[in-house]
Design brief:
Length: 132
């Protein structure tokens, strides 16, 4: 995993999933943890303590907010961060040209998720709502 992922983990004061929590549904996990999933687009997200090939990092913040950590291209990131309008993005579990910008997407802004493609970097297609 890249060192840049440590910054959001530290920002939100997250701890890694414990081995005994691994494989649990996201809904049943305590707040303040992060783990990895290959089922990010499903309603019952199973989260594991170790990443596997092309898995998304998922954060469960204090207060219960869920964030999906992944990579976007620069243009999508600018629209997403501005929050001025809805946006459709490809979120990748790992950097994949041109998606090299790390982003944490709150589940509360996601209006639609499509399962990741299993080729071309495994992007998950997201419809993201505006914030204003």
């Amino acid at each position: 995993m890249s060192p840049e992922r440590e910054q959001p983990r530290a920002k939100w004061n997250l701890r890694a999933l414990k081995a005994e929590e691994s494989g649990s549904p996201l809904a049943s996990l305590p707040e303040g943890v992060y783990g990895f999933t290959t089922s990010a687009a499903t309603t019952e997200v199973a989260v594991f303590d170790k990443p596997v090939f092309r898995s998304f990092e998922v954060h469960k913040l204090q207060g219960g907010e869920i964030l999906y950590l992944g990579y976007m291209n620069e243009a999508d990131l600018k629209v997403f961060e501005s929050g001025a309008e809805p946006v459709s993005v490809d979120l990748y579990p790992d950097p994949h040209e041109p998606a090299t910008h790390l982003a944490g997407v709150p589940e509360s802004r996601i209006t639609r998720k499509r399962p990741p493609l299993r080729d071309q970097g495994s992007p998950m297609k997201l419809q993201i709502a505006a914030t204003r």
